Amino acid sequence: MARTLPRKLQISGSNQHLSTNLNDIKMAQQRMALWEADIDEDVDLQFAIGNYGQSGHFEDAHIQQPQIDEATLLAMQQHMAQQAAFSQIPDVVKAFIVHFHQAVLDNNLAEITVAYESGWNKYTEKFYSRTEWPEAEVIAPLVNDDPVFLILYRELYYRHVYSRLQPNIDDRFHSYENSCELFNYLLNSEGPVALELPEQWLWDIIDEFIYQFQVFCTWRSKVKSKTEDELMVLAEGGQVWSSYSVLNVLYSLIQKSRINEYILAQQEGKSPEQIAEIVGEYGQRPLYRNLGYFSLIGLLRVHVLLGDFTLALKVIENVELNQKSPYTRVTACHVATYYYVGFCYLMLHRYPDAIRTFVNILNFIMRMRQYHTRSYQYDQISKTADRMYALFAICNALSPSRLDDNVANTSKERFGEQFAKMARGGPDSLPAFEELFLYACPKFISANPPPYEDPAAIALLISPPTPNDSPAQANTSPNVLDPTHRHLNLFLADVVAQAPVPTLRSFLRLYTSLGAAKLANFLDVDEEEIVQEMMLLKQSSKSVGKVPGSEKGSHLDGETIATSDLNFVIAENMVHIAESTIGRRYAGWFIKNTERTMRIYDDLKNMPLPQPSKNATTSTTANSASANDTQSKAPRIGGQKVAWGGVKVA
Predict the structure, then answer these.
(1) 329 — alpha (psi -120 to 50), left (phi > 0) or beta?
(2) pLDDT higher at 95 or 235
(3) By three-state DSSP, how is residue 568 classified?
(4) pLDDT in tens, 114-136
(5) Are 388 and 342 a contacting pair, CB within 8 Å?
(6) Entry pTM
(7) In this structure, are strands 574-579 and 640-641 parallel, antiparallel, or unpaired?
(8) 199 vs 292: CA distance, rounded Å
(9) Has residue 395 got a pLDDT over 80?
(10) CB 161: neighbour CB atoms within 10 A?
(11) SS3 readout for 325-364
């Protein structure tokens, strides 16, 4: 509310304002008189004032427009798009990237591990589960354009694209270029690089490199689904994702780290100083040593994908399959190693070794399942375990033997119908073998790409000939070129050869001696054919495998061992059967559980007894006293008094 001034002050203020106005009027009249006296009539006002604002419109045709070339304009547009994309990044993601970069700069393995295994997956699920992460060029200002971190970031970026989204042809080529930049930095720098990464990340780098190579080869082999632009790019692609470039990277990492020499030196028990002298400056760094070790497992996988199972086992001849090997620290690497080794044994017809390999790793997975659930790779480990249960069922059908009960029961629960069909044998078992093999086998690839540089050959692949055409053209059908079906046909050829074995084995178990003519009558074949089938049974009852106690040495070493408990001889058209049955070995089970019980007993014995409270002690004493009084007053029922003061009831 405005305050009211006193009346005297209001009047004096109004008089003062009036006098000020009168003075201003007088001064204005004086200035007007002065101007009128100064201006002469002969002065040209147009010349004195000028023609400002009176010359018409402004002409801009004579001004040259700035010329911007297309590259500069494109760069400006890209910069504006990057700024727009940068503004859309959540603040928590920006802070995470800055923190991640600082941890990499400091080589802080603990912080890198948390950011890699927890932070990246957390923000992926929250913000980027169905879309791409920001591109490396967008987040570059956050990390001061650090080239090493941007390479690592792109590795995570493209891995996310391959796992959650559908990569296009640009993603496939750019991921290859980024992998080349990463491995060139590691292999061609002046001396070992000053970079430390967790073992899990190093394994994922090698594993993802091979996975992207496998996916690209599979995508490249599907000629019919390609557009004209994709066909042109693939024709000019050159060595992008070629088998030679991938194998070159893996062998270079092995050679640079000298990992084979390191493994042999450790097995020989050499001192750390001797090992350091053997492996050199690169082999002493954990980064190169782990990459070299994981490259051995990667070579195992690549050679399996290419179908060379003997060479696959050869490259890991120095790697021991036990729980003390370095690869066991990364569970995904541990499981993958046993999977590919077991599959190699399966394809080499070494079924006992394959069964032993699958049983070891499947028991390990069952024991550690509660810890795997906390891993972000739990789904991948579970899928690989399911595939190994299927391969285990195949090996058991082809070479029945005494099995681990836990693994056998789990395999029957998951593949019970196929398990029964394969065990019976015969033509009806082939679909079951084919189904499980296609489900459990690796996704094989071809070492050579289709001839994209030859338009005529590509046209033939896109429009294959009909069966009425020449046989040479018919052999180029997609099924013949598919590596997976090629290996399936090789596997089924061996299964077909052993198809009569289960039925023949079931008849022989019923007798100790049997005439060949009678056995041929049971199977509805002639005697000559029954002899051939029995020779096939004899051959399938033997296999090359490792004998107990000879786990060391090359994985290809082995001896011819009997895989069946059924043996027979043929003498004068009589078949004499001898079945060796070995009972269960209970001694080991009792010894193991007795030792376990003794350890529990010793722990309980060494534990201190709990101290009772005073109230509990007082109440217990009172209750015991009252009980004694009651017992002394009670009449004796009868019985003979014994030496220790009690009563012996009759």
Answers:
(1) alpha
(2) 95
(3) strand
(4) 999 899 999 999 999 999 999 99
(5) yes
(6) 0.75
(7) unpaired
(8) 12
(9) yes
(10) 19
(11) CHHHHCHHHHHHHHHHHHHHHHHCCCHHHHHHHHHHHHHH
